[in-house]
Amino acid sequence: MAHTVVYNVIQLLFVIGFAPLYAGVLSRFKENVQSKRGPSILQPYRDLWKLFHKDEVISSETTWIFRFTPYLVFVIPLFVASLIPVLTDYPLAFAFMGDMLAGGFFLALAGFFAALAAVDTGNPYGPMGASRTRMVGFLAEPVFMIVFFTVSFVAQSTIPYIVQKKWVASPAAFFSPAHILLLIAFFMLILAEGGRIPVDNPTGHFELAMIDESKGLEYSGRGAALMKWGGQMKFLVLTCIFLNVLVAPWGLADDLQPGHVLLAIPLILVKILLFTVVLVIIESSLAKLRLFRISEFLGAAFIISVAAMIASIFSTSAV
Amino acid sequence: MAGAQTQLIEGLNALSAGLILLTAFGMVATRQVQGVMRFFVVQSAFLAASAFLIGFDRGSIHLLALGVITIAAKVIAIPWVLKRTLPGDLYERREINQVINIPSSLLLALLLAIAAEFLVSPLLATTPDPVIHVNLPIGLAGILIGAYSLIARREAIPQLIGILAMENGAFFAGIAIAPDLPLIAELAIAIDVVLIAVVIGVLTRNITQTMGTTEAAAMSELREEPPPWR
User: Fold this and answer.
1) B104 contact A CB<8A
2) pLDDT of residue A44
3) For residue B149, which of A184, A267, B77, B162 is within the disulfide window of CB 3.0 to 4.6 Å?
4) Residue range of the domain that includes B30
5) pLDDT grade, residue A225 (50/70/90)?
């Protein structure tokens, strides 16, 4: 028990510590692919350091929601991180708190408060970004649900640890059409939810074209740092769910030895690095979609996830 | 050990089945003629992969030869033939005004896929073979989605690719149900398909030269005088 509590703390520190590095590597790779030199991979850490040492300006028109949201946005990914397999393939001390649906609810809560805070300021770009995020959100929601239902139908469970073992069990399960289609649908969902191209451009600084970024425009100082860090952690957590539960459920620590748990850290970093390469290739070879084409993108994700569901129903009823 | 190998091959066959279904959806979702063509080539490549896998597993020379024929005819010959016979600007063309817009088309394609699963489920109850369980429903879904894009597309080339996609679906179901079909029949079909592509390609080129369009809807009237858009 004491072991799992310690590992859980290590897992949370991993998410807190490596989320800015992930963002840094991603932006550096992207610039390199576009034949630019790009910022140092440590740049996000410097940005956070700088923001934490700046004064915070809060409009007197705002309410408690505006001040409360950065803390929530920072903490929620940590809650989710303690529910999912990040370093170990067995549940840690706090994993009893919820299943994958709880993770989805937590992330939705953070998104809800971020949207409220954006509306709270009265800045015209905030509500615009918030409404666009909600648009993407309500289109992504059915896909999320179908993906979760299919996953839990195939694995007969909504606990991510059990789901993950299901795919490792046999190559037939890993290569089943349901699994492959689910992967693609979930990947499209990550692009939409993480505010990445082709749905949104995370590095864009043109207010009229932003979706996800515009919600944090009014924050300064510590609030901005927490929002930024929280966003990076959310993306890392989504990537961990994708990689550790669905794509490559290997390389996690499977016993209580501290060495194995520490060894899992470089392994997951390698997996994330490979994922980054794929992501960068996609982001550099596609253009951002027009706003009303996003429904087509997420519609395609929905179709793929439903196709995964029917494939899984028919293949399991056959066996 | 042989069991594990068979299981892996069945897994990979299921993987290519999933990707064939995905490319069928892709063909419905794509606007550009060239994009539709690319999805078709990828689909044919997975089809050949599936034929190789099943052929290897069952030791069937027919299926291996069939994979080679598929690659030669559909991955190499048909894109090449169409590229040669068609004027280049047809390839870059986008089909802006579809009969049914793309999200609804995708939903209809999905319904067709579900319908295919339901239609074959009583047939599947008669056999325990996992390859048939994967190939038959997805092959039928491929046929139905190809027929749908034949109906809903307006441009000639996506319609042609709809026909070819139907053939791909039939082929995919066929390699599971009748793996020992005589090679000569398959060879005839493969040559037939390339000939269809040539004929439709030449026809389309002549239509574009005289009419300036390949939209089926624009050709609904008979005219004696030269059309006003010339």
Assistant:
1) no
2) 93
3) B162
4) 2-216
5) very high
Chain A residues with CB within 8 Å of chain B CB: 170-178, 180-181, 184, 295-296, 299-300, 303-304, 306-307, 310-311, 313-315, 317-319
Residue A73 pLDDT > 90: yes
Which residue of chain A has the CA closest to B115?
Answer: A310
Q: Is B225 within a domain?
A: no
- pLDDT higher for A287 or B94? A287
- First vs last C-alpha separation in chain B: 69
Contact call for A180 and B18, based on CB within 8 A: yes
Q: Is residue B224 part of a domain?
A: no
Assess if residue B227 is contained within a domain: no
Per the listing, tokens 């609030």 go with: A223
CA B209 to chain CA mean position, Å? 27
* C-beta atoms surrounding B146 within 10 Å: 25
| Nearest alpha-carbon partner for A113 in A209, A234, A24, A19 | A234
Total domain count for chain B? 1
Phi and psi torsions of A288, nearest 5°:
-65, 140
For the full predicted model, state whether its pTM sits above 0.90: no
- The DSSP annotation for chain B comes to -HHHHHHHHHHHHHHHHHHHHHHHHHHHH--BHHHHHHHHHHHHHHHHHHHHHHHHHHT-HHHHHHHHHHIIIIIIIHHHHHHHHS-THHHH-B--S-SS-HHHHHHHHHHHHHHHHHHHHHHHTT---HHHHHHHHHHHHHHHHHHHHHHH--SHHHHHHHHHHHHHHHHHHHHHH-TT--HHHHHHHHHHHHHHHHHHHHHHHHHHHHHS---GGGG-S--SSPPTT-
- Residue B20 pLDDT class (50, 70, 90 cuts): very high
Whether B142 maps to a domain, the answer reads yes
Cβ-defined contact of B18 to A178 (cutoff 8 Å): yes
Alpha-carbon distance B103 to A287, whole Å?
20
| Assigned token pair, B129 | 């073979």
Q: What single letter denotes the amino acid at residue A265?
A: I
Record: contact A170-B29, CB cut-off 8 A? no
